[in-house]
């Protein structure tokens, strides 16, 4: 529970209403009751406030909700996230190394870390303060894990990889699996040893069942603040810049460099050995087969400006009719040519 003024201060918002109002939780606009706070980030939902039972609402400047207590701030969605975290995300308990976890003698575990039963922590591993490993996590030898990290059940970090602070691995993430490297040997293939590592910088989050492959030589690196959705594949020696978003089932092939603040939609694909500039957005199922200049919004395969792609896709349903018209035009031209020859 918190006072409304406390929440306004938390998000840097302007309070309009009862500063001493008690708020217990955040709730959806159509389910909120007395004691709840809700939010409106999209103006199309403002009409729902007419029947809303919430005690308070988070709104953008210039918007009003008569009869309701308000927190007014520039980014209601961000304010919602911060208030939700403050009110309803429980602080993880410190439990230390619990019975049933196997820890190598040479591992260095901060006394405020929590290691659940079923975890395996290899030789030479370092785990920082307030980090938590849930059941079934496996940490290979010589891995470094920073402070306040959260590794969910069945996630795996292989040998020598380095994880920064406040990194989250959702269930069944694999960090440092072998890159897909094979040298042709006649009709067969010879496995190329993958002796590099993976580095996850601070505040990176990796979604469930995603894989970040270790480098052949050197490192695969995911830079600060980047978020990967579930089922994302990052190939060996890839560098993904800061504050990028890669949505589910997207993939980046080996040795490609992605700039800062890029967004790739679901099933987007980036071929290997490319460079993608800063501030590039690629729509779902878009595919890059060559270098991509910065500051663009693109879609399709081959990639094209998003607005051009929209026009192209609007044409597709009309193609059968256009084909018939072209056949009629062709037939008519042939008839006209025949008439001209007769003359």
Overview of this protein structure:
- The protein is flat and about 100 Å long.
- The protein contains 4 helices and 40 strands.
- The relative contact order is 0.06.
- The longest helix is centred in the last third of the chain and has 24 residues, at 319-342.
- It has a 12-stranded mixed beta sheet, with helices on one face.
- The mean pLDDT is 95.
- Helices cover 16% and strands 29% of the residues.
- The chain is of the alpha/beta class and 343 residues long.
Range of helix content: 10-25%
Percent range for β-strand residues:
25-35%
Integer average pLDDT? 95
Secondary-structure-derived class: alpha/beta
Which shape, going by the Cα principal axes? flat
Biggest sheet: strands, sense, closure? Answer: 12 strands, mixed
* Radius of gyration over all CA atoms, rounded: 27 Å
Low-pLDDT stretches: none
Strand neighbour order, sheet with most strands: 8-11-14-17-20-25-28-31-34-37-39-40
Q: Care to count the β-strands?
A: 40
Q: Determine the N-to-C terminus distance.
A: 94 Å
- Counted by DSSP, the helix tally is 4
């Amino acid at each position: 529970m918190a006072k409304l003024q406390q929440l306004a201060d938390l998000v840097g918002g302007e309070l309009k209403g009862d500063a001493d109002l008690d708020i217990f939780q955040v709730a959806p606009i159509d389910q909120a009751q007395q004691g709840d706070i809700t939010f409106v980030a999209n103006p199309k939902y403002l009409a729902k406030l007419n029947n809303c039972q919430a005690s308070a609402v988070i709104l953008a400047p210039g918007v009003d909700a008569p009869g309701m207590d308000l927190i007014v701030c520039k980014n209601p969605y961000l304010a919602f996230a911060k208030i939700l975290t403050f009110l309803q995300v429980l602080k993880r308990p410190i439990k230390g190394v619990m019975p049933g976890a196997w820890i190598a003698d040479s591992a260095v575990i901060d006394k405020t870390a929590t290691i659940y039963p079923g975890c395996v922590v290899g030789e030479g591993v370092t785990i920082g303060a307030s980090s938590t490993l849930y059941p079934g996590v496996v940490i290979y030898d010589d891995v470094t894990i920073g402070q306040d990290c959260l590794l969910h059940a069945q996630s795996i970090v292989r040998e020598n990889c380095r994880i920064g602070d406040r990194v989250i691995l959702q269930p069944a993430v694999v960090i440092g699996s072998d890159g897909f490297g094979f040298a042709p040997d006649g009709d067969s293939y010879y496995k190329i040893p993958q002796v590099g590592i993976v580095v996850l910088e601070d505040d990176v989050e990796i979604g469930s069942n995603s894989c970040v492959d270790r480098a052949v030589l050197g490192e695969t690196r995911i830079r600060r603040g980047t978020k990967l959705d579930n089922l994302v594949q990052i190939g060996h020696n890839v560098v993904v810049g800061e504050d990028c978003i890669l949505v589910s089932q997207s993939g980046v092939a080996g040795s490609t460099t992605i700039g800062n603040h890029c967004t790739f939609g679901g099933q987007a694909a980036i071929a290997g050995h490319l460079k993608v500039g800063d501030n590039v957005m690629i729509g779902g199922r878009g595919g890059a087969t060559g270098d991509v200049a910065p500051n663009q919004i693109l879609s399709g395969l081959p990639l094209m400006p998003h607005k051009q792609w929209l026009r192209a896709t609007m044409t597709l349903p009309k193609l059968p009719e256009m084909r018939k018209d072209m056949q009629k035009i062709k037939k008519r031209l042939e008839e006209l040519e025949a008439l001209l020859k007769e003359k």
